[in-house]
C-alpha cells in the first residue's frame, strides 16, 4: 500500500460565494427550497469533482458541506432539536430520518436564525417569535458555530440523513468519499444545558443515550459502502477533566463494535483532532482506544510529532494522518520541510500507515487564488488558498510514493518562492526591525499613575459626572456605501468624495451636539471596516479581491494579509480628526483600531511569532496617537474588541499571550502626556475572566459591551475596575429604541459596583448598523438618563 492524500473539509461557499447568494435568496423568499437544493447539489458536485478528478486527491470528504453550520447539522442529525422549535414546526411523523428539505429545512433555519410570524389582524394564525440558538466562536478561529442545547430528559433519534445522502450523491458521480461528522464526545462538550436544567446537569451525562444514534450512523454508512468515516473530536486539544477519558473510551468502543458488525470489510474509524497538541490528553487515546486512524495538527503543534509517532508505532494497525499543510493561513508550504515530516512518519510507520493532509478543515482558508488578478505578483507567489493547498498535498504524496525526483520541477519552483519570500526586501525592513529593538520599559508606561492623570484631565475637560459618549461609528447608510463605491470606481473625484464625507461628519456632529453628548466622535464614514481601513494605510499589508472565509451562516469576511514588516508611511486620521474638531467646541475623540485587533482579524505572517508582528502594528498606531495629540486631539480611543479572541486554547498559555498583548496596547497608547485621555473599547465576548489583564492596559476610560450580554460583565462577584469605565447601557444590534427606564435600571446596577465618578454613559458598540432616526432617539434617551442621574445625585 502507498501513502494516501486526504482532505478533512473543503470551504463550502463556492468560488464566487454561490452558497451565500442562494441561501440568502431562499431566506428572502426569492427562491424555493428545491431551487436552493438544486444549486447546493451542483456546488457539492463541483467540489468533489475538483478535489478528486481535477486535483487527484485520494480521500475526499463528504458531509463537510453545510447550509449553515456543521455543528448545527450534527445536533439536528441526532435529533437535538429544542422543544420550542419542535413545537412550532415538527409533527411526529416528520421525525423519520429524512432529508433536509421542506419542514425540516424550516426547523433547521429557525434554529440557526430565529423565526418570526406576526399575522395581520383578523388572521387566526398564531404569533410566533422564536430566537435563534446561541452562537459561539469555533475554538480560536473566526468561524462561529451554533451551540447545541441538551435537556436532561433529552431523547436522541436519527432525524436527518444528510450524511448518508451526501455520501450516496458523491458515489452516484463515481466519487468515493469519506463522510465527516462531529464526534459524539465533542458534540456534547461543545453543547450547553438547556435553560432550567438542574445545576448539576452536564450534557456529557447523555453520552450513553446518544451513542445508539451514532451506531446507526456507522451502520448506514457501512451498508452504503463507505470504507471509512471521519469523526472530528477537536475537544481533545483542550484542557479536559481526566473523567472525559472514560467518555472517549465508551464512545469509541461502541463505534468500533458497530463498525465491526457492519459488513464483511469493517468501515474504518478515524479520530480527528486539530488546533493544538493532544499530548496532554494522550492517555485518552493510547494505548487502546479502538480506532483505525488518528489525525493530528502538526502545523499548530509540531512538538507533538515524536511522541504521537512513537505511540502510534506501538499500535500495529493505526493509520496516522499528518496535518502538515496549514488549514488556517494562506501561505505556500515549504514542500522540502514538509516532505521531511512525511519521510519521518513513513520511516516509523511504513507507507501504508501514513496519510498526508491539511492541519484542519480548509473551511478557514479562501477558495482559490485564481480570482486574485490584482494582487501584487510577488505576494501572490507566496500564497496558497484551498485549491493550491490540495495541490501541495497531492505533490507531497506523490513524492512519498514515487521519490522526490517525481516532483522535481514543482519542488524547484516551490523552493524559489520560499527563498524569495525569506529574503524579499518587500518583507524585511531593517528600519522597522531596528525600531523594535529600541522598545523599552518607559515606552510601555504612562508618565504618571492614573490618579495623577485623572486630576489633570478633570481640570482640562471639565466633564460632568456620568459623561456621555458613543463608540465611534455612525450610520453607514446606502448613500455612504454608494459614494465609496463610486469613488473606488473613479466615477467621482477625491475632492467630491471628501466633500461628501465632510458633510456626513457635519451631520453626525450636529446630531451629537443636539443631544448634548459630551465627548464627540466624527462617525467613521470614511471606513469600510475598522481593520481594513488602517491596513490600507500601512505598509506590509495586502488585500485580496475574493479571499472570503465563512464567519457564520452565510456571512463571510475577507481578512487582509500581513505579509511584511509593518509601518505607517504617513498620518492616517489626523486630517479628518482636525476637521471634525473644528466643527465643535466639545472635545473630539480620535478613533483608532488597536494592534491586537489588527492582528486577530488579519491573515498573519507565519515567519515570525505574533508578538513582533503586533509590536510593529503597535508602533504604527503609536505614531498615529502621537500625531493626533500634536494636532490637538486630546482624547483618543484605541479599540481592542478582539483582545479576548486571541486567548490560547489551553489555560497554561494564557499568561504569555496576555502579557505581550497588553504590552502592545501600552506601546500603542503610552506616548502621550498625562493630560491626554486614552480610551479603549471591547465587545463581542465575555471579559470578566481577563479583567485583570484589561486593568493592566491602563486606559483612562474603557467602554465595554454589557447590555447584549445582560450585565454579565458586572455580574461577576469579584468585579472591580481601577480606572473609568462605560459599560454599554443599550444593545446596538437591534432597531428598537431603548427606553429610559431600562437604561436607568442598568445604570443603577452599575452604581452598586462602581464608583459614581468613574462611570461613563454610552451604548454597547458602534452605531454603524443603525438608522439615523434610531440613533437620534436612542441618544436622546441616553443623555436624558445621564442628566437625571447627575441632578438626583444617585448613590446606592
Ligand atoms: C467592533 S468594535 C467597533 C468599534 C468602532 N469604533 C465602531 O464604533 O464601530
Ligand atoms: Zn464594539
UniProtKB/TrEMBL annotation:
Residue intervals of the Cobalamin-independent methionine synthase MetE C-terminal/archaeal domain: 466-787
GO BP annotation list: methionine biosynthetic process; methylation
Pathway membership: Amino-acid biosynthesis; L-methionine biosynthesis via de novo pathway; L-methionine from L-homocysteine (MetE route): step 1/1
Domain of life: Eukaryota
Protein's UniProt keywords contain Lipid metabolism: no
Binding site for L-homocysteine: 471-473, 639
UniProt binding sites for Zn(2+): 681, 683, 705, 765
Residues reported to bind L-methionine: 471-473, 524, 639
InterPro entries from the UniProt entry: Cbl-indep_Met_Synth_N, Cobalamin-indep_Met_synthase, Met_Synth_C/arc, UROD/MetE-like_sf
Span of domain Cobalamin-independent methionine synthase MetE N-terminal: 5-346
UniProt KW keywords: Amino-acid biosynthesis, Metal-binding, Methionine biosynthesis, Methyltransferase, Transferase, Zinc
Cofactor(s) essential for the protein: Zn(2+)
Name of the featured protein: 5-methyltetrahydropteroyltriglutamate--homocysteine S-methyltransferase
